[in-house]
Amino acid sequence: MECFWSDLSKHPQCPHGPTLLFGTYENGKLEKFYVCSACRERKTCKFYLKEGEKLTKQQAAKWEQQKKQFISRYRHRSLYVHFNNIMSVTPDNRCYCHTCEQLISKIEKDVMNKHKNHDIKENLTDYEMKHPTEILKPIENSKQEAQYFFTKQTTEDIVNILVKLGATQILCIGTPKIHEYILENYEDTISSLLLDFDGRFHNFFGPLNYCWYNLLNNHFFNESAIHVFKDFLMQNKGKHTYLICDPPFGSRVEPISWTIKKISEFHKKWNNIENETDCLKIMFIFPYFMESIMKQKSNPPGISGGLKDLSMTDYKVAYDNHPLFLNDSNGTKLPSPIRIFTNIPLNLVELPKSNGYRYCKKCQKWVGKENKHCKKCQECTSKNGLTYKHCDICKRCVKPYWKHCETCKRCIVAKHLCGRKPKVTGKCFKCNEIGHTEKECNINEEIQTEKIKKIKKRKVINEKVMINDIKKKKIDDSQEFENEKQTSITKNIKKTSNKLEKKKKKKK
Predict the structure, then answer these.
(1) How far apart are CA 170 and CA 240, in angstroms?
(2) Domains of the chain, first to last
(3) What's the pLDDT band for 121 if we cut at 50, 70, 90?
(4) FRET partner for 170 with CA separation of 20 to 30 A, picked from 66, 142, 208, 454?
(5) Are the CB atoms for 119 and 98 separated by under 8 Å?
(6) Which of helix, strand or coil describes residue 251?
């Protein structure tokens, strides 16, 4: 399945904003269609429309009604007023109803009996009220918006990196932990704006600190939030502005890259920025094994910006509530595969020495303690948090548990099926053709073969030309020789005839 960049303002909309244009190949023919940007399963959002078709009046009215119902779930200003009212009472009178997704008082719960049999958290402290990630239950719907929160250590490390870089404005997309930490510790020196798809944050953050937002189509659910966003990006004439984004890892890279590029362009345009050093600085959280996908698939061919131009740091991002993405100090599990990708020069991104990170002078970047510099590769090669080993046959560093397979002619895990190829339905990143991957692509071989054929043809043609030239020369030379021979015979005949005539005259 392919996802296409296009003008989202012309796309039909579902409750989650403008839809995205996808395409699948059926019998070799590309079929394009519009589907919801936020939900990766049709059961969650059933919007589907083939490209070129139009919604009927009834369908358009139905989706417009659903859109209004979805947006009307939260009244931001009134909810923030209610937050301040709840803050004014003592902690033992504060509650949060997980069932209704709203803050309530003890009176509403016990006396008015409005939330009978509901899932309620009581006795909310001042700290919890200002740190909603401590209250809210993470959303675990992997088909829509599975939610994982950074550990305390990761949160502190990332903010310290940003502080050392001199950040004065930080746009937090899907990073509520970072937003909370900045408001608590750097409210006077750093301004922060949270853009998040989780509408429950309406209950805790004001309209100037939080916007209800869909990253995958750059859509603000509240129109007034667009002005808040613009004012934020224009602070300090756009200087020292950083964007940190932690997206759902199951999302497509194409729409995320489009959004990141769009925000960067807005920042540059609204602040009339000409100096590249003042452009928007990006820190993007994503698995290390998605690096090649980001580089090759996030943008259409020939288009820079977005995720395509980001470089990977060695920092391992850990989450509190994820079973896999943890940094295990006991060494019983592999290190977290989540990394920070950035457009900031890597020598400036100082990683915490307390966690074992060090500066490699040869690579001019901060690396993990396990990342050893390879003299043959001329770089620190580790990606997954383990020390890589160099394979002289493959002429590159590989994971320590890989072995070189003579049948497959490459390094691979010890237990594998030789010659097994996955079924490929998408396009090759190298030649843009269907049916094979980049590793299997023989376009370079074909080009080389074609070049060799052309060279051979040229040689044959040149040889033929040379042979023809030699033949012509021989013919010309022989013709010239015959002419000279004939001329000399004629001259001899004339000489002899002249002599004979002279003799005859003398006799007479």
Answers:
(1) 9
(2) 2-72 (no CATH), 76-130 (no CATH), 152-325+333-369 (3.40.50)
(3) very high
(4) 142
(5) yes
(6) coil
